[in-house]
Write a structure and sequence with these properties.
Structural class of chain C: mainly alpha
Helix content of chain C: over 70%
Shape of chain B: globular
Number of helices of chain C: 11
CATH topology of one domain in chain B: Methane Monooxygenase Hydroxylase, Chain G, domain 1
CATH architecture of one domain in chain B: Up-down Bundle
Largest sheet of chain C: none
Helix content of chain B: 25-40%
Shape of chain C: globular
Strand content of chain C: under 5%
Oligomer: heterotrimer
Distance between the termini of chain C: 63 Å
Radius of gyration of chain B: 24 Å
Chains: A alpha+beta, B alpha+beta, C mainly alpha
Order of helices and strands of chain C: HHHHHHHHHHH
Radius of gyration of chain C: 21 Å
CATH class of one domain in chain B: Mainly Alpha
CATH class of chain C: Mainly Alpha
Number of domains of chain C: 1
CATH topology of chain C: 3 helical TM bundles of succinate and fumarate reductases
Strand content of chain B: 15-25%
Structural class of chain B: alpha+beta
Number of helices of chain B: 16
Number of strands of chain C: 0
């Protein structure tokens, strides 16, 4: 591995004390960041710096957990893009080699009506949980279910269901969408379960319940810009939105 | 995942449940990161699998340090788990005929692993999460997110509730329950660098331990051989490369020390080294299994080579995993088909192309087999306190087989706890609900927690929490890592004690206690790790044998782990005896009635 | 169906159905206009056929309703969407370049199209169907003389003709963009789309919008070059022209001087 010169960067970070305060950007400098470091490790270094210098704002609050791109906890809008300037990854998988020495990096929280800022870069995504609670499940209780192989499922359907199920619920879709729409998230779950015979049974009820909850929580209306699909770290396709539309229409025609 | 599945199952049975997690949603639990799959004895491929065989493999894989009865039950319910998950809409991989696909995994000789791409853990967790969501929607479960458990509440010798801290507001509150289930995962983060999530912690288990729950086999820690090596001090997290890579990749280090040195300095590339100068140490040492030896063996050999000065990477702590030969043999297309996504991930992280240069890998902490001691009912030694999933010690003995963590988590949650908790509650019907606000025990527990937090905040030192955590990790990895000796463990105990004392004098926590304070959260966890680390070292020190993930250099036979069944065929359960007091060891003897105890031997393939 | 039209998808469905309806109308309009390229006389008979007959009027009313619904819902949805976006805006947002320009600016494009539509109405509909309806008797013969009006506006008004031609071309460009996104998006919203069909629909949308807009543009350019000859046989009554002059459009006055 070749010797890497560290990066000196200016960070423009959104600082907001709590939900109700007004936030603002603050500039910080970090020095000698290895290109091997991940983006969040760079933020860790910034925080260590802020702690050691007793910065009045304290360390920057941001969500993160697994740091391998699967838990969906990390967010961040980096230089104008959800999960930063690379495709099909989460923020925690972003590495500093994507940046150049002397760059100014703007770091913002998700901004969407559905995701109020809690502090700094942390947002409240409980709306997604509420949508799931409204219908993102198959109503089976533990036990008393048929053998796993009792119902064959065409491989193509199972694969497509898996494409949808890959959603990690990070919220990049609604954060990116100019309409603040959560359709990609909702459609991923509706589509996954509508594709499988186990979920088909209550597909109509589910589509209606989840869409109603989504609307109630104030998410916007999808205008098919496709930005969500491009920023989705798991590349969930907007074709699932078409299926959601179909399912929703079917459900409403039925009654 | 064990927690979500248990909470959902309880609620379905009619109990009112309160569930807590530290993440912003129960969907983010670290079970989500499991890649490989989940085992079940379905025998769909007709290759001779059975409940007994899964049971046998799990016991043997655990190096005969797991309890027979628990493991047998695990194997029995494994099939129901698959049925349950399919019914929930988990999109397992399927064959063209529409039936479920299986693969062989982690050295098993039968194909019993069910999988959903490389995201099985995610799909199973989301299945449990959806069941839980349904119950939250029905108001049978009250979900508390971003909430950390701070202590247990004990009334008349029984566990009757918990005290929590709201991570957003810092508010301390307590909650009553007729019983409490901990499904709080493993404690791998003691080592600072591990594959665990940043927030994974052993605090809940430690709080329970201090309230009288025994802690069993803490030294049983699994080290996984194929991680992307560390690249610097600032690193926060290690990334797993699936074990399946070892099916086609060949592991080697340079034969000559000067080549290794040049590699470390970046003067030559791996591809510059000729085949005859490469030492394929696993293939030469274990001709029968070659690169497919179990995790602990592969890990130890990698460390041995690196310690001997043959390690590569700028740090000298890495070995090569080379696909050159696979590409020559199978063609690039086949390799890409099999491992394309892993290669892509590797390239994203390291910026080197594994099709051209060999990958670099190194072992890292992955899973903790040890945990709270539980009986067959998954009850800890504290009445009314249960432990499930990775938080308990029950099923994996000294070493966990691939694809069985998910199996155990879901078995506990769906099919064990719903029975055993009912059994416990059978005579608790007459116990009225307690209002925590009007009960002295709850008030006292809350006050204790507040005092504890105040104590942490009042240290007002000048060293950051992470710095202490890193130092602890360093001690643990160097002394209580892959190969342990009496000296290293004694050193570790001493150093950890010193570090702990220093922590309580010097730790610096900015901000206030009654607000969102990440550093305080971390400090609380690190404080517990500092005790847990010592407990691990103590357990490792007393267990003067090598078994599974625990390797004592004193106990080996030509470099192979030597188990000592005569003296150590028991579960070591530790009882807390007070601050800075030596814990007391209790032994639960293991009697194998249905399995013949054998020695694992990967040299000849028996 | 209770509450269906209040739901986000329901509202989007109204947008897409009304949009598809307008797309059909455009196609019809183009076919009708294209006749003028081949035979002015036939074109005028088409105009006469559509004149102010009850079916044409009924069609117009339905069409107007379609427009109205499309426009009203566009505003309703946009207002909701802006609210959903929250109060704080991103300091910088660099959407990947694959996000279509049109998809982000449908409302703006719609407004441009609407403005064009008003102009178009003043020029043609007011002089033809509307004149007929209010019974400007002298205008009667000209009200079905579509070729006359096309030639008049795009060729005979001097500088204004050039301006009008350019305005129309801009209008068509906006329409092209709007249709480009609107066409496949409408199918998507109805649910008639999937992984295979999204690229196909996008491709059809490109072809469709290009054909429609290019068709209109060709007619306008053809007219601007003076390609349209007002057929004498169909326009016997000179008084009608005078009647029209008395309605006094500015350029007419100028040309009279």
């Amino acid at each position: 591995m070749s010797e890497n010169k560290g990066l000196n960067l200016t960070l423009k970070v959104w600082r907001q004390k709590d939900r109700h305060s007004k936030g603002q950007f603050k500039e910080y400098k970090v020095e000698n960041i290895s290109t091997e470091a991940s983006f969040l490790e760079m933020v860790d270094i910034l925080n260590e710096q802020l702690i050691n210098t007793n910065d009045p704002d304290g360390p920057v609050a941001f969500d993160h957990d697994c740091r391998e791109g699967i838990c969906g906890m990390c967010s961040l809008f980096i230089n104008g893009r959800a999960h930063g300037p690379d495709d099909a990854i989460t923020t925690c998988q972003l590495h500093m080699r994507k940046f150049k020495d002397g760059d100014t990096i703007t770091i913002e929280p998700w901004r969407s009506g559905g995701f109020p800022v809690i502090k700094d870069l942390m947002v409240d995504r409980s709306a997604y949980d509420k949508i799931m609670q409204a219908g993102g499940f198959v109503s089976v209780s533990t036990g008393g279910v048929p053998d796993a192989n009792a119902i064959p499922i065409p491989k193509a359907d199972a694969d497509e269901a898996m494409d949808a199920a890959a959603c990690i619920g990070c919220g990049a879709c609604a954060a990116t969408c100019k309409n603040g729409s959560a359709m990609l998230f909702v459609s991923a779950k509706v589509s996954q379960l509508a594709l499988l015979p186990q979920g088909k049974v209550e597909a109509a009820k589910r589509a209606k319940a989840m869409v109603a909850k989504m609307d109630e929580l104030g998410f916007g209306n999808c205008t098919n810009t496709g930005a969500c699909e491009l920023e989705c770290p798991k590349q969930v396709s907007i074709s699932h939105i078409a299926r959601l539309n179909r399912e929703f229409l079917k459900a409403n025609i039925k009654d | 995942m064990a927690g979500a599945s248990a909470a959902a199952s309880f609620a379905e049975m009619g109990f009112k449940v309160k569930a807590f997690c530290y993440q912003d949603s129960p969907r983010r639990a670290h079970s989500i990161a499991a890649q490989g799959g989940i085992n079940a004895a379905k025998n769909y491929p007709n290759d001779g699998d059975s409940v007994y065989r899964l049971f046998y493999d799990t016991i043997k894989g655990g190096d005969y340090r797991a309890r027979e009865a628990n493991v047998y039950r695990l194997a029995e319910v494994s099939n129901s788990i698959i049925d349950q998950c399919v019914a929930q809409g988990v999109p397992f991989a399927r064959e063209y005929g529409g039936l479920l696909a299986n693969r062989s995994f982690g050295g098993a000789l039968v194909s019993r692993t069910f999988y959903a791409r490389g995201q099985t853990g995610q799909q199973l967790l989301l299945g449990a999460y959806s069941a839980l969501s349904r119950q939250i929607g029905l108001k049978n479960v009250e979900m508390h997110t971003r909430c950390e458990m701070m202590d247990l509440v004990m009334i008349d010798g029984r566990c009757r509730g918990i005290v929590t801290r709201d991570l957003l507001t810092g508010e301390i509150s307590s909650h009553f329950g007729h019983c409490v289930v901990l499904a709080t995962g493993g404690y791998g983060n003691v080592y600072f660098l591990s594959t665990n999530a940043m927030g994974s912690n052993g605090s809940a288990a430690m709080k329970a331990y201090r309230k009288g729950a025994y802690f069993a086999n803490p030294c049983m820690v699994q080290i996984h051989p194929t991680y992307i090596p560390q690249h610097g001090d600032f690193q926060s997290k290690l990334t797993l490369m699936s074990e399946s890579l070892r099916n086609d990749g060949r592991i080697w280090v340079p034969k000559k020390k000067e080549d290794a040195e040049k590699l470390r300095k970046g003067q030559i590339k791996a591809s510059d080294i000729k085949d005859e100068d490469r030492y394929f140490y696993l293939e030469e040492r274990y001709p029968a299994f070659g690169n497919l030896v179990p995790r602990d063996v592969a890990s130890r050999n990698a460390k041995e080579r690196c310690d001997a000065g043959f390690g590569v990477n700028s740090t000298g702590n890495a070995v090569f995993l080379d696909f050159k030969y696979a590409i020559e043999r199978l063609g690039k297309d086949v390799v890409e088909q099999r491992y394309g996504n892993l290669f892509q991930m590797y390239q994203k992280i390291t910026d080197t192309d594994p099709y051209k240069e060999p990958m670099m890998i190194y072992p890292a902490i992955h899973y903790t087999m040890g945990g709270l001691w539980v009986d067959y009912e998954l009850s800890t030694t504290v009445p009314g306190l249960f432990a499930a999933g990775e938080a308990n010690f029950s099923d994996h003995g000294a070493n966990r087989l691939g694809a069985s963590a998910l199996m155990q988590g879901l078995a506990d949650g769906y099919f064990v706890l719903p029975y055993t908790v009912q059994e416990y509650l059978a005579d608790q019907f007459n116990v009225p609900r307690i209002n925590p606000k009007e009960n002295d025990a709850f008030k006292k527990a809350e006050d204790d927690v507040k005092a504890y937090i105040k104590k942490l905040m009042d240290v007002k030192g000048d060293e950051s929490v992470d710095s202490f955590h890193k130092r602890l990790g360093h001690i643990m990895w160097n002394n209580v890592g892959m190969a342990r000796t009496k000296e290293s463990l004694e050193t570790a105990i001493k150093q950890i004690q010193e570090l702990r004392a220093e922590f309580w004098k010097k730790v610096h926590i900015p901000g206030k206690a009654d607000e969102l304070n990440n550093e305080l959260e971390k400090a609380n966890r690190v404080a517990d790790f500092l005790e847990l680390g010592e407990l691990i070292a103590r357990d490792a020190l007393h267990r003067n044998e090598s078994c599974g993930g625990h390797f004592r250099e004193e106990s080996q036979d030509n470099g192979e782990a030597k188990r000592d069944d005569a003296n150590f065929m028991y579960v070591g359960a530790w009882e807390y005896k007070g601050e800075n007091q030596e814990p007391e060891l209790h032994k639960e003897d293991l009697n194998y009635q249905f399995i013949k105890v054998q020695t694992r031997n990967y040299k000849t393939g028996k | 169906m209770k509450g269906f039209f209040k739901s986000s998808i329901g509202k989007k469905l109204i947008m897409s159905i009304s949009g598809l309806f307008l797309i059909l109308f455009l196609l019809f309009h183009l076919c009708m206009n294209a006749v003028v390229l081949f035979s002015e006389c036939t074109y005028n008979s088409v105009c006469a056929f559509l004149g102010s007959n009850w079916y044409a009027v009924a069609g117009t009313v339905i069409l107007a309703a379609g427009f109205l619904v499309h426009i009203v819902y566009a505003f309703v949805l946009t207002i909701q969407n802006r609210k959903a976006r929250g109060t704080d805006r991103y300091d910088s947002q660099n959407l990947p370049k694959e996000v279509e320009f049109a998809s982000k600016n449908m409302l703006v494009l719609g407004i441009i199209i609407f403005c064009g539509l008003i102009t178009h109405f003043g020029q043609f509909w007011a002089k033809m169907m509307f004149a007929d309806l209010i019974g400007c008797e002298e205008a009667e013969s000209l009200s079905t003389n579509g070729a006359y009006w096309i030639n008049y506006y795009f060729h005979e008004c001097g500088a204004l003709s050039i301006v009008l031609t350019v305005v129309y071309l801009i209008w068509f460009a906006a329409l092209w963009l709007h249709l480009n996104h609107g066409f496949w998006s409408a199918f998507h919203t109805v649910g008639l789309s999937n992984k295979t069909w999204i690229p196909r629909l996008k491709c059809i949308a490109k072809w469709f919008s290009t054909i429609v807009c290019l068709g209109f543009a060709v007619i306008v350019i053809y007219a601007a070059c003076g390609g349209i000859k007002v057929p004498q046989g169909c326009c016997k009554d000179k008084q009608a022209v005078e009647c029209q002059q008395s309605t006094q459009t500015p350029c007419q006055q100028e040309s009279n001087k």
